[in-house]
Amino acid sequence: MAAVFRSTVPRCVPVLYRRAHCISSLREIAREEIGKIKDSGTWKSERVITSKQGSLITVVGHQQLEILNFCSNNYLGLASHPHIIAAAQAALQKYGAGLSSVRFICGTQDIHKELEHKIANFHGRDDAILYPSCFDANAGIFEVLLTDRDAVFSDELNHASIIDGLRLCKARKHRYLHLNMSDLEQRLREEKNARLKLIVTDGVFSMDGDIAPLDKICELGDKYNALVFVDEAHATGFFGKTGRGTEEYHNIIGKVDIINSTLGKAMGGASGGYTTGPKELIDLLRQRGRPYLFSNSLPPPVVAAGIKAFDIVLNSNNLAERLRHNTKRFRDAMTKAGFTIGGSDHPICPVMLYEERLASVFADEMLARGIYVIGFSYPVVPNGKTRIRVQLSTSHSDEDIDKAVNVFVEVGKKLDVIS
């Protein structure tokens, strides 16, 4: 036994040395990259919130203050709505915390089917399929739908999840200039031999708050025999007269072929995404969509919260109308004060600053005065397009908005952004 022990010891030494050497190399590489990020002024520090999501929050290091939150996708204020919380709690008691499985094994409950039917009916489509997130929905669809016989046409500023999803498919890829219909048409015209053509766009672009010209995109789809796909993550539930999104905003409900969206923003604020469209597509995604087949099913409390969120939106349009009021109030006041605000008609309100370090300093100055906002810099936005992205919520009062504008003006003058 001793001889065996002595013979094995030397074998461990190279292994231990290799591991120490590899870890040391990893640490050094990471430190170098972190240094580059900090030197460029694009380092992103995470602030720790100690309260539920809402218009008023508490933040570590600022516990003495209730902070006004102007940097959340909680558009309709449903993330901490008492009816949403109650629905999630009831589902937790009845169905448990999770399914410990994927959908096709033992991870489908009646409430999953109920939510899918509700989503399909809300959008006026045949069927819907749930995913853990809209990122997963975007990651799962293109690989299944498109082959090397097909062609896809994607707006150059589409969300990262769309870009990553398209990388997985073998279709011929065309990237058209942002919102540029002439460029899109030229690319559609040049692609003559595709089995399927698919135009892919965000409905509302999350960094800029600008809106895809879906009506014109659908016209081009009809002209060149192309399908139209839209990601409605920043539109579902509140954009358009009854919250049906960018389709409704452009008065073309039913014209888009495939819609992906999320439950993690306006519709409850937790997590979960979905695809809705033709039944045959949804059936195919259930058989071949990798994020669906290999990820645990959506937890019951999240599903119940989603059901309740759709019920609230379907029952009344008051929340969306309040959000439109808040959006106009903020945009008008900030523009009058001299700030450059990106986008239009949307509660995403980018306050353009253009300089990386300036955005970080500006956000810190705002927090010190009781307003929670974040500076957005590369790689979240392109170089030279740094901004403070303000997001309005139904839960903001007129007084909240006026206070935020006043603080923006105070900090803007201090940092020579406005005069």
From TrEMBL:
Similarity section: Belongs to the class-II pyridoxal-phosphate-dependent aminotransferase family.
BP terms from Gene Ontology: L-threonine catabolic process
Catalytic activities: glycine + acetyl-CoA = (2S)-2-amino-3-oxobutanoate + CoA
Annotated ranges, domain Aminotransferase class I/classII large: 67-407
GO cellular component, one term: mitochondrion
Name of this protein: 2-amino-3-ketobutyrate coenzyme A ligase, mitochondrial
Originating species: Cryptotermes secundus
Keywords linked to the UniProt accession: Acyltransferase, Ligase, Pyridoxal phosphate, Transferase
GO molecular function, one term: glycine C-acetyltransferase activity
Keyword Acyltransferase: yes
